[in-house]
Design a protein that fits this description.
8-stranded mixed sheet, globular, 349 residues, alpha/beta, 12 helices
Length: 349
């Protein structure tokens, strides 16, 4: 009788298409738990390098390899070790061709033997794990009704810059972590902003009557308690335009577009400046992606483990560049749910 490990080598590799991944995606509450697990694991239980990148010929294009390893902690040994990699490409010129700019696959490998386990379309994972990390940041460092001007009837206001895939993936999370939120959406294409605003009006937790599309970014962000920037990457001359004059004094800003929108001066003056992974942030700053940005106060995971609370006054900036560990953690949960639901295609070895 073959050993369990030998038997695993004879099992087919599971392939999950984008539709399979979407069908097996955990609900929002579990996604937030997976994101928090990822952020805290980065402190001591994970190994991953900054994104390894090459740059194909089309202007602004990139291809990143994002390997990650997770060692199960003493606090949760039942979760097991994880090993995998995401291969993600970005080709901005694709939009003019009518195809998505971002494509990705995630490969999971048995952490004890190196035997491939599964291959997943990484598009839905990238979208949902990014939004979930934003949700962790907003839930822990965003304003609450009690802290907002002492008004018993205050409801949070959020602004979302960027009505693309990332903007769409943030809707459910914003409604979940900021119930009753009034949402303003801005995009350089007004029709996309209005379409996403209509989706927001149908999203649980978002105030339908106060979910609108706006054409002027500066006015849209000025009164917001939370600002999420998910804009498309732009040329250097148009970067870092969002300075302190755009923002409320105590706003939480969550950039998921590197320094595309947020000025370095806001991070320098923030009461708290957190990143997802210090090594990756510093590597990207050295490469010119975060010119003028300061050393981070800490990482999201460190702040969670240390019990750091939102400062009583001042802005908070929580920027996350995306880490391969999040893709691996999400992919593992998706594979387990897919197996239970009979989803996917078995690929012979």
């Amino acid at each position: 009788m073959p050993s369990p490990r030998l038997a695993s080598m004879q099992e087919p590799i599971l392939y999950l298409s984008a539709d399979d991944v979407t069908a097996a995606m955990p609900p929002v509450a579990e996604r937030l738990e997976l994101a928090e697990r990822t952020m805290t694991a980065l402190v001591a239980d994970a190994e991953l390098p900054p994104k390894i990148g090459v740059h194909p010929r089309p202007p602004g294009s990139f291809a990143h390899a994002m390997p990650a390893s997770l060692r199960s902690s003493a606090a949760s040994p039942e979760s097991g070790d994880l090993l995998g990699i995401k291969w993600v490409t970005g080709f901005p010129e694709n939009r003019a061709k009518g195809i998505p700019a971002i494509h990705a696959v995630v490969v999971l490998t048995d952490a004890q033997t190196g035997v491939p386990r599964a291959i997943l379309d990484g598009g839905p994972i990238t979208a949902q794990r990014t939004a979930a990390v934003s949700g962790v940041a907003i839930a822990r460092f965003g304003p609450t009704a009690a802290a907002s001007a002492g008004a018993a009837d205050h409801r949070p206001r959020a602004t979302l810059i960027g009505a693309g895939v990332q903007g769409d993936s943030h809707l459910e999370v914003l409604g979940y972590v900021l119930p009753g939120v009034a949402l303003t959406i801005v995009d350089r294409h007004p029709d996309r902003a209005e379409a996403l605003a209509e989706t927001a009006r149908q999203t649980a937790g978002i105030r339908s009557a106060e979910s609108v599309a706006a054409s002027r970014m500066r006015e849209a962000t000025h009164g917001a308690d939370v600002v999420v920037t998910a804009a498309s990457f732009t040329d250097p001359a148009k970067r870092q335009v969002m300075d302190a004059d755009w923002l409320a004094p105590d706003a939480l800003v969550v950039p998921v577009d590197y320094a595309t929108m947020l000025a370095a001066s806001v991070a320098r003056e923030a009461s708290l400046f957190l990143v997802d992974d210090r090594g990756q942030f510093l590597a990207n700053r050295d490469a010119g992606q975060f010119d003028g940005y300061p050393e981070p106060t800490g990482t999201i995971g460190e702040a969670i483990l240390d019990g750091t609370i939102r400062p009583a006054a001042g802005r908070v900036v929580v920027t996350h560049l995306g880490v391969g560990l999040a893709d691996v953690v999400f992919a593992d949960a998706i594979v387990r749910r897919a197996a239970n639901a009979g989803l996917g295609t078995a690929l012979p070895r």
